[in-house]
Write a structure and sequence with these properties.
The protein is an alpha/beta fold. The chain has helices spanning about 25-40, 55-70, 80-90, 105-115; strands at about 5-10, 10-15, 20, 45, 55, 75-80, 100. It has one domain (about 5-45, about 60-100). It starts with a strand and ends with a helix.
């Protein structure tokens, strides 16, 4: 499986076992996301540590997951490499998603916001 999840301080952290997040990995990611949604989890952090390439299908999947939360949770992005950040910047998704340096920084931010 190319996507794995863990629980950290009230958040579901989804990370990747590959350096790519593309249409090939999207189904694993969605399966994990929906599994946690069905379990009534609403606070997600997607950890891009080690991911060097992401395609538009994967970006579209993130947007769909964000919309699915419909304001009733969080979907933060962490640890973007320069090439992946450039995709977020080019598509202006960096203005939609909260992006953090790492998982711990994201958790601390949201804990201070008392989500």
């Amino acid at each position: 499986m190319s996507a794995i999840s863990s629980h950290q301080k009230g958040f579901v952290v989804i990370s990747f076992g590959s350096n790519r997040f593309t249409s090939i990995e999207v189904n694993d990611f969605k399966e994990l996301f929906y599994l946690h949604i069905d379990d009534e989890q609403r606070n997600f952090i997607v950890d891009f540590s080690g991911v060097e390439y992401m395609d538009s299908t994967a970006l579209g999947t993130l947007i769909s997951c964000y919309k699915l939360l419909n304001g009733s949770g969080t979907l933060a992005i962490t640890s973007l490499s320069n090439p992946v950040y450039e995709l977020f910047d080019l598509t202006r998704m960096n203005s939609i998603f909260k992006i953090f340096e790492n998982v711990e920084t994201a958790i601390n931010y949201f804990k201070s916001e008392k989500i």
